[in-house]
């Protein structure tokens, strides 16, 4: 197995692809009990490049027990916070040092531009890692007074934050490495142990990350990786009675299934789910900012971004200019494999995702939709042309459902109020953007937009210090920010009578 395409790849990537399929348990790559495997494809050609383990419930049990043993004996959680922080910072440094190998491996399994892999999966991720590492030394409760008999002079009362236990991290395929780190890092910073399950479509970088954590000094058993299907390996992991907390990013239906499982075991959970993210363009908006903002907001990573702009509501005076400038821009995009640094349109992650996106476009065409199709894409590989859908009907599937592809609906509206009403007419509420030069409009409208993040004059920017998560069916809980570790700790009240 390996990559046999036209672009040169790092020797570390070639060696990694040639390894026998394995899980990562107790600090080592280990052979699975399961004989079942899953193929990994290069989305730019459809060629198979690797084989991954499809872990059985017994394999998952072995990984969870390893994590549980590591938690129980305190080899990680009982280290001084400053020592945990040092290991996590070293982990971030090694991710940076090995960045080119990570970036190429990510592009090979996911299809995205090597520029995006370098910038997000490696560059942004390592900044996230350092941010979370810094939280390790900030964990703490607070003292408080009570009105118990005798008053505060007879009682000392305070809270402590204690690591919740073994965390199951379930990651998706759109930013396999970055989102895996969003699962693993806060758990480790809080003193928890982790079992990570990457998507079966993109299982490779997670295994490389686990080895890198060991090389950075993380004790064995604290960070384990199981690969495999959602229905088998993923379900076995989330159902496991030794899992104390689940952190999941992915589709809303799978998030709901995980929530139901978690409720059965009273397992804590955080869900970051799908989006159907609107961009409201007011008549006074600066089109020179709107066009590049929407191109990035809608087409970054082929639109496979949970917060991607997917529904534009533009006030009538700007509609024609906006559509013609977007059409010109998507028509001029260069197309190619992710490893070609000049290609702006890259394949989607899988044949299944390509077919799913094409089905949304076929449905729109069949309903009489007006589609403007951008740069022509090759037949080989999992490409879809960037596409604008003009004034899509409100009941079209692509208006209501998360498409996760390079598709942007653009609707002309008569007023900001109409744009706002249409923007909020969704069962999801992850992100939204508002484009205006008028401060008063921005201040009036932002509180009325039903989304976990509202960008004004930008879209899709995220930062480790900015809490991120969804309203409505876009999730439960928040990632990032100074309070991020709260979701990985139990809050204990201590009440001392003296
Ligand atoms: N919000 C986001 O960031 C993402 C949204 N999606 C959306 O989901 C659609 C389908 O993509 P999928 O990969 O099928 O998403 P998914 O939500 O089913 O998969 C995400 C992760 O969950 C795991 N999983 C699936 N079923 C599970 C179960 N019963 N128990 C535990 N883990 C389970 C998968 O193996 C994968 O690791 C996409 O077309 C896209 O619309 C996909 C990836 C990321
Ligand atoms: O906005 C970005 O840069 C990336 C966001 C990715 C997610 O949160 C996601 O798709 O889950």
TrEMBL record:
Family indicated by similarity: Belongs to the aldehyde dehydrogenase family.
Record-linked PROSITE patterns: ALDEHYDE_DEHYDR_CYS, ALDEHYDE_DEHYDR_GLU
Molecular function per GO: oxidoreductase activity, acting on the aldehyde or oxo group of donors, NAD or NADP as acceptor
Active site: 272
Lineage top rank: taxon: Bacteria
Keyword match Oxidoreductase: yes
Swiss-Prot/TrEMBL keywords: Oxidoreductase
Pfam families the record matches: Aldedh
Coiled coil: none
Residue ranges occupied by any Aldehyde dehydrogenase domain in the UniProt entry: 35-494
Name of the protein in its database record: Aldehyde dehydrogenase family protein
Lineage: Bacteria, Pseudomonadati, Pseudomonadota, Gammaproteobacteria, Nevskiales
């Amino acid at each position: 197995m390996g990559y046999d395409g036209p672009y040169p790849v790092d020797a570390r990537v070639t060696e990694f692809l040639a390894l026998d399929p394995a899980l990562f348990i107790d600090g080592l790559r280990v052979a699975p009990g399961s004989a079942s495997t899953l193929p990994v494809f290069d989305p730019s050609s459809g060629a198979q490049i690797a084989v991954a383990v499809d872990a059985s419930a017994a394999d998952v049990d072995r990984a969870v027990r390893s994590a549980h043993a590591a938690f129980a004996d305190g080899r990680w959680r009982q280290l001084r916070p400053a020592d945990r922080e040092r290991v996590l910072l070293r982990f971030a440094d090694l991710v940076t040092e090995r960045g080119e190998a990570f970036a190429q491996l990510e592009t090979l399994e996911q299809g995205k531009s090597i520029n995006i892999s370098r910038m997000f999966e490696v560059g942004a991720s390592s900044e996230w890692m350092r941010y979370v590492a810094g939280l390790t030394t900030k964990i703490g409760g607070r003292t408080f007074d009570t009105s118990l008999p005798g008053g505060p002079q007879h009682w000392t009362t305070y809270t402590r934050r204690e690591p919740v236990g073994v965390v199951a991290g379930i990651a998706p395929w759109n930013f396999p490495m970055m989102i895996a780190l969003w699962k693993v890092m806060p758990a480790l910073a809080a003193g928890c142990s982790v079992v990570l399950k990457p998507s079966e479509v993109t299982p490779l970088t997670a295994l490389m990350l686990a080895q890198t954590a060991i090389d950075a000094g993380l004790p064995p058993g604290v960070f384990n990786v199981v690969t495999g299907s959602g229905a088998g390996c993923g379900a076995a992991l989330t159902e496991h009675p030794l899992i104390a907390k689940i952190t999941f990013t992915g589709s809303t239906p799978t998030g709901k299934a995980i929530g139901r499982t978690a409720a059965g075991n009273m397992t804590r959970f955080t869900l970051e789910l799908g989006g159907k993210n609107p961009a409201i363009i007011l008549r006074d908006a600066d089109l020179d900012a709107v066009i590049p903002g929407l191109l990035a907001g809608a087409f970054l990573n082929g639109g496979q971004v949970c917060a991607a702009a997917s529904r534009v509501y533009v006030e009538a005076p700007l509609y024609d200019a906006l559509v013609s400038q977007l059409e010109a821009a998507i028509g001029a995009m260069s197309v190619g494999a992710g490893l070609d640094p000049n290609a702006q349109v890259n394949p989607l992650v899988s044949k299944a995702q390509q077919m799913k996106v094409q089905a949304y476009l076929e449905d729109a065409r069949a309903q009489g939709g007006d589609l403007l199709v951008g740069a022509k894409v090759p037949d080989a590989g999992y490409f879809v042309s960037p596409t604008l859908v003009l004034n899509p009907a409100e009941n079209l599937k692509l208006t209501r459902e998360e498409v996760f592809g390079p598709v942007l609906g653009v609707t002309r509206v008569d007023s900001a109020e109409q744009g706002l009403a249409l923007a909020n007419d969704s069962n999801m509420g992850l992100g939204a953007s508002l484009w205006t030069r008028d401060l008063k409009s921005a201040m009036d409208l932002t509180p009325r937009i039903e989304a976990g993040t509202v960008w004004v004059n930008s879209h899709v920017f995220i930062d480790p210090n900015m809490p991120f998560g969804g309203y409505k069916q876009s999730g439960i809980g928040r990632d990032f920010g100074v309070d991020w570790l709260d979701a990985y700790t139990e809050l204990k009240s201590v009440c001392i009578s003296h």
